[in-house]
Design goal:
globular, alpha/beta, glycosyltransferase, 34% helix, disulfide bond, 14 strands, 446 residues, Galactosyl_T_N, nine-stranded mixed β-sheet, 15% strand, Beta-1,4-galactosyltransferase, three-stranded mixed β-sheet, Spore Coat Polysaccharide Biosynthesis Protein SpsA, Chain A, transferase
């Protein structure tokens, strides 16, 4: 009788255990989906811990080996001169090349190009992560008359080596933007760069599209000035060294190589997120960012692929120059984009048809004292031609690799007297009819 009762209880217990593990796994999967940034941070931290343990073990092993070798040499030479053999197995410090910066008494000439290694660039920045309102930031920089509307600044004592557009993708991070401006503006001034800030804000209900916002910011920034360097900057990344020079070079640049939340380790070799920089020529050659990444993850990996496909390599700051602090988040991030791996597998094929050349958007532009705000309501329909163009390319009607470097940005439509910029599809030569809340307007492509 007892055996029969036990057999009856066993399936019930197994069922309860199965339900428990199913509920637990479902909860974990849901958390990964709705908060991928948090999960990713913890995974990178665990990976970083493993790397640190491995490096520490190697260091301890090297020290033990060094002591054994020193002892052997000491015993061998004690009979000769009764002294230790002057052996130094750690020569790394003697071979460190220190970067030379100009002396404090360096004289600037207004008609000469600003140098890259200025005496004003001291290195470590005094980081203040405490929250501050935009009103306080406005008051702080209102004392500097050289900062023009929209945060535009250029040095007066030399010719800036680079004209830099700082593009910041934005959504509901109002507590982060003032902290970023508090640190970046003085740093860029010390680097003697001509710069302006473009905050590209996404509204609406669609998942956050960081990459498409960068494309929009690029198009809008190029209307203001012939910028030659583009910095793609997350709003929550604060540089720790002003020697992390925000100019561009012959190769695309990855600035944020050591982030505090990743224990100052590069998560993986192809990591290209956080803060990156390309020249205008480089950005146009790779056809910008992809527009198809909705939600968290994948767009920076696709950018890495685009850079490699175009024949570039990525440069990074040396040593601790690429250290950044991450502003803590007070809210949950974007949901995870589950389709990113499928897109990354087709990254090379999509590069010629998804980017600057299939970008469509409606922008509302306003000016703050310290930045230009570009507000857009992005939807997948605004870049829906990419899949169609990819199919045409597979059938032999699309563009090839040679045409990638010739990818042109879309044409613009502009209604005089209004601050709304309208962009048509590049393939269309027809007149477009735009319906708006304040009426209808018909215009021809420029």
């Amino acid at each position: 009788m007892r055996v029969r009762r036990g057999l009856l209880r066993l399936p019930r217990r197994s069922l309860l255990a199965a339900l428990f593990f199913f509920s637990l796994s479902s909860s974990l999967l849901y958390f990964v989906y709705v908060a991928p940034g948090i999960v990713n941070t913890y995974l990178f931290m665990m990976q970083a811990q493993g790397i640190l343990i491995r490096d520490n073990m190697r260091t301890i092993g090297a020290q033990v080996y060094e002591q054994v070798v020193r002892s052997a040499y000491a015993r061998r030479n004690s009979s000769v001169n009764d002294s230790d053999y002057p052996l130094d197995l750690n020569h790394s410090e003697s071979f460190l090349q220190t970067t030379t910066f100009l002396p404090e008494d360096f004289t600037y000439f207004a008609n000469h190009t600003c140098p890259e290694r200025l005496p004003s660039m001291k290195g470590p920045i005094d980081i203040n992560m405490s929250e501050i309102g935009m009103d306080a930031i406005h008051e702080l920089f209102s004392k500097d008359p050289t900062i023009k509307l929209g945060g535009h600044w250029k040095p007066s004592d030399c010719v800036p080596r680079w004209k830099v557009a700082i593009l910041v993708p934005f959504r509901n991070r109002h507590e982060h933007l003032p902290v970023l401006l508090r640190h970046l503006i003085p740093m860029l001034q010390r680097q003697r760069l001509q710069f302006a800030f473009y905050v590209v804000e996404q509204v609406g209900t669609q998942p956050f599209n960081r990459a498409m916002l960068f494309n929009v910011g690029f198009q809008e920034a190029m209307k203001d000035l012939d910028w030659d360097c583009l910095i793609f900057h997350d709003v929550d990344h604060i540089p720790e060294s002003d020697r992390n020079y925000y100019g561009c070079g012959q190769m695309p640049r990855h600035f944020a190589t050591k982030l505090d939340k990743y224990m100052y380790l590069l998560p993986y070799t192809e990591f290209f997120g956080g803060v990156s920089g390309l020249t205008v020529e480089q950005f146009q050659k790779i056809n910008g960012f992809p527009n198809a990444f909705w939600g968290w993850g994948g767009e920076d990996d696709d950018l890495w692929n685009r850079v490699q496909n175009a024949g570039y390599s990525v440069s990074r700051p040396e040593g601790d120059t690429g250290k950044y602090k991450s502003i803590p988040h007070h809210h949950r991030g974007e949901v995870q984009f589950l389709g990113r791996y499928a897109l990354l597998r087709k990254s090379k094929e999509r590069q010629a048809v998804d980017g600057l050349n299939n970008l469509n958007y409606f922008a509302n532009v306003t000016y703050d004292a310290l930045y230009k705000n570009i507000t857009v309501n992005l939807t997948p329909e605004l870049a829906q031609d990419a899949d169609m163009n990819l199919e045409e390319r597979k059938q032999g009607h699309g563009v090839g690799r040679a045409a990638l470097s010739q990818a042109k940005p879309p044409r613009f439509l502009k209604e005089s007297g209004l601050d709304i910029i309208l962009m048509t599809r590049q393939q269309s030569d027809k007149r477009v009819e735009i319906g708006r809340a304040r009426g209808l307007a018909q215009m021809s492509p420029l």
